[in-house]
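REQUEST FORM: STRUCTURE PREDICTION
Request ID: SP-0412
Submitted by: Lab K.M.
Chain count: 1
Length (residues): 434
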Amino acid sequence: MADVAGRLTKLAEEVLGTPLPVRIRAWDRSESGPPGAPVLVIRHRRALRRLLFKPGELGLARGWVAGDLDIEGDLYQALDLLAGLLWERAATTKAPRAAALRALARPELRAAARELLALAGAPVPPTPPAEEVRRRRGPLHTLRRDKEAISHHYDVGNDFYALVLGPSMVYSCAYWESPDASLEDAQRDKLDLICRKLALKEGQRLLDVGCGWGSMVLHAAREYGVRAVGITLSEEQATFARKRIAEAGLADRIEIRVQDYREIKDEPFDAISSIGMAEHVGRDRYAEYASALYALLRPGGRLLNHQIARRPLADEETYRVDDFIDRYVFPDGELAPVGRTVAQLEEAGFEVRDVEGIREHYALTLRQWVANLEKHWDEAARLTSPGRARVWRLYMAASALSFERNRIGVNQVLAVRTPDSGTSGVRLRERSWG
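STATUS: Completed
RESULT:
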C-alpha cells in the first residue's frame, strides 16, 4: 500500500473538486501536496475510519483530539486554508462539512469510495476520545444540565487555566490599546472599561454573573470600592476565587457563590456585569435571562452584557452549534446575532444605551492564549490530558481566525433599567471611555 499520501490527496481533490491547499503526510511516511504548505499529518489509518463513521466535523475533531491527526507548520495558516474550502461550500449546502464525504455515495465516485474504504482498514467504528461529552438527556438549560455543562468546560483544573490565561485569570476578550500591549494590561483595561461603563461608585452593590475566577469582582472592589457578589456554577472556580479574595483582604466586601442566576433572591443590585456568560444561557432561555437580570437591578441600575455574537442567517431555524464545540468545548452553548440580543434586552424592559463591537480584540486575546498553551505544552498536557490540551489549542486557534474573518464577533452592550420618570442617569456625551 505504497504512497498513501498521494492516494489520499487524489481522493480529496476528486471529492472536493479543487486542489488540496495543504500537504499530506500519511502513516507510511509518504507525502503529497503543494511544497511549503502546512502539513496535515495522518498518523493512523484510524483517522479515516473516524471520518467514514462520522463524516464531517465530528469525525475530524475525534481524529484531532485522539492524536490521529495533527498539523505541522503554521496552524493558523492551515486552518485558514481548510476553512476556506468549508466556508466556500457553505454557500451552496446546508451541511458543508459532511457534504464532501457523503458525495462518495454518488455513482461517479464509487471507485473513490472503494479506495477510501481500502485505505481505512477494518470497518469498525473507533471509540470516541475520552474528552468527548457523551449523549446528554433531558431538556436544554435546566439547572442540572447547565451545571454539568459548565463543569465540563471549567472544572478541568485551575492550574491548567493559569498556564493559558496568565496571571489575570480572565477568560474573556481583553481590551487592547495596541497589539504590542501585554495580555495582563489588556485584561486590566477590559475590567476597568466595564467598571466605568457601569459608573461604579463606592458603596454600590455589584452582581457579576458567571464570575469565573473572581477577577471582575476583585477589580471592582479594589479600585471602585463596591460590595460585590460573584456567582458561578463551577466549584473549582469558586474555590480559587475565594482564595484570591482572602489573600487580597477583601473577604468582607466580596462574596462568591456556587449559584445559578435563577436562584438569586437578594436583589436589588446597583449594577450587573455579565461577561462571557450569556453564551451558556441558550436562545430558548435568553428572554428569561434578560428578564431575571432586569428584576435584579434597582431602577436606574446598569447592566453591562459582554457577549460573543454570530452572523445572522437568512433562515434562523437552520442554525446549529458546531459539533466540535458542542461535544468538546462548550456543551449546549449557543450564539445569537447581536441584533437579537439587543432586541431581547429591550423586550425585557431595558433601555439599551451603547453597543461596542470589539471582535479584533478577541482575536488578539486568543492568539496570546494559544501562545501561552504552546509555551507550556508539556505541563498543560500533564495537568489535564494530551487530548484536552489539543481541544483547547484547536478551538482557540480556530476561534481567533473566526473573529479575524468576521465570522463571529463580540460586543459590549450597556443597558439601563430606566425608571418611569425617564431619568436614565446616563450623562450627555457619556461615551468618554476609550
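NOTES: The first strand starts at residue 23 and ends at 25.
Reviewed by: T.R.
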